[in-house]
Amino acid sequence: MKFKFVLLILMSLFFMGSCFGLDSPSLEIYKIQNERAAIYNALNLTDEQIKIYEGIISKNARTYEEKLTQLNKENFKIKVLEKSNADKSEIECQKKIVKSIQKGINNLQKEETKEFKKCLTHDQRSKYAMIKKLERKARKDSLHQKNYYKSNPQMRPFGNPVTCPCSNQNNK
Fold first, then answer.
1. Residue 136 and residue 143: Cα distance in Å, rounded?
2. Mean confidence (pLDDT) of the chain
3. End-to-end alpha-carbon separation of the chain, Å?
């Protein structure tokens, strides 16, 4: 009985969220496409390569949208389960479902990348590999970057001018 009640609340909240346009998967697809477009722009693609790229995107756009919608639903279920103080086993089971969906999305991205790399020249492939390497390095560096302002709250943020106490005395 309790499980049915939680499930009913979960479904009603899900449909309310979709009515108000929360967590729109099309926005996430748009972000992915913009990120890839920036990389592909740096590769100086020919018209034929651009057509291949657009074909790959159009072929998998619907699949991405379905998977991202499903991912948003499952993430929402996790939030509801955590707020309702559900069993840890139920939450862990739900997290496994989310991880499997994320893995599916990552596999789809890898397949698209492999398919796209087939149409690149040797120079473009090496440039693409370098861009990806720099991207991984930047991500890794951002994870290990210290927040100096948090460790020393008296430290002024960069760019804030320091007023000199002697200038205030001269104005008097």
1. 11
2. 76
3. 76
- Using left for φ > 0, alpha for ψ between -120 and 50, and beta otherwise, residue 25 falls in alpha
Tell whether the model's pLDDT for residue 14 goes beyond 70. no
- Residue 2 confidence (pLDDT): 46
The answer as to whether 155 is a domain residue is: no
Q: How many domains does the chain have?
A: 1
Whether residue 151 is contained in a domain is answered as no
Under a CB-based contact definition with an 8 Å cutoff, are residues 29 and 61 in contact? Answer: yes
Answer left, alpha or beta for residue 152, where phi above 0 means left and psi between -120 and 50 means alpha.
Answer: beta
Shortest CA distance to 66 belongs to which of 76, 55, 74, 77? 74
Q: How far apart are CA 170 and CA 124, in angstroms?
A: 63
Q: Tell me which residue range forms the domain holding 76.
A: 2-137
Query: What is the spatial distance between Cα 54 and Cα 56, in angstroms, rounded to a whole number?
Result: 5
Q: Is residue 144 part of a domain?
A: no
3 state SS of 152: coil
Q: Please state, in angstroms and rounded to a whole number, the distance separating the CA atoms of residues 63 and 74.
A: 17
Angle at 148 between CA 147 and CA 153, to 5 degrees: 110
Question: What is the Cα–Cα distance from 10 to 74, expressed in whole angstroms?
Answer: 11
Largest interatomic CA distance in the chain = 77
What per-residue confidence (pLDDT) applies to 107? Answer: 93
Q: Tell me the mean pLDDT in the region 50-70.
A: 87
